[in-house]
Amino acid sequence: METGNLVGKRSMNKAEMEEEDDDKDENVEEDTKRKRVLTRSGRKVSTGEGSKQPSCQVENCSADMADAKAYHRRHKVCEFHAKSPAVLIGGHQQRFCQQCSRFHLLAEFDEAKRSCRRRLAGHNERRRKSSCDSPGEGSI
């Protein structure tokens, strides 16, 4: 290792190293007491392990999510309502978007499609870009 890289860096003495090890041990103990999850925005939130069973977001749905697939439990939607053309949530008719994995108002979908217009537009844009990059494919 070059000594030039060490300029301005301090070395730890034995007491500092032991103190750092103690801090690591305390962090491990805290982690075992409660789990935390890092969200997309970078916030840490508690997982709430002692919470009730996950249930479907749709009003008056009493589906048992205990045996549901992990995908459906994670997004809090039963398999039936994930595939339904329209459901009632918060007093509004909505549909589950397969791309966003969340419910949108029916107006955000084209006809009976299961992906919202915004995500479909992005998908189509990517398809157009890739077809322009390689001319000659698909044409005779």
UniProtKB/TrEMBL annotation:
Keywords on record: DNA-binding, Metal-binding, Nucleus, Transcription, Transcription regulation, Zinc, Zinc-finger
Cofactors that this protein relies on: Zn(2+)
Major subcellular site: nucleus
Compositional bias ranges of the Basic residues kind: 34-43, 118-129
A molecular-function term among this protein's GO annotations: DNA-binding transcription factor activity
A single cellular component GO annotation: nucleus
Ranges of residues in domain SBP-type: 53-130
Keyword DNA repair listed: no
Binding site for Zn(2+) 2: C97, C100, H104, C116
Any one Gene Ontology BP term: flower development
InterPro entries noted in UniProt: SBP-like (IPR044817), SBP_dom (IPR004333), SBP_fam (IPR017238), SBP_sf (IPR036893)
Free-text remark on how the cofactor is bound: Binds 2 Zn(2+) ions per subunit.
SUPFAM superfamilies reported for this sequence: SBT domain
Region (Disordered): 1-57, 118-140
Subcellular location: Nucleus
Biased composition (Acidic residues): 17-29
Biased composition (Polar residues): 48-57
Pfam families: SBP
Residues binding Zn(2+) 1, per UniProt: C56, C61, C78, H81
Stated role: Probable transcriptional factor. Binds to the promoter of the SQUAMOSA gene.
Name of this protein: Squamosa promoter-binding-like protein
Species, as recorded: Petunia hybrida (Petunia)
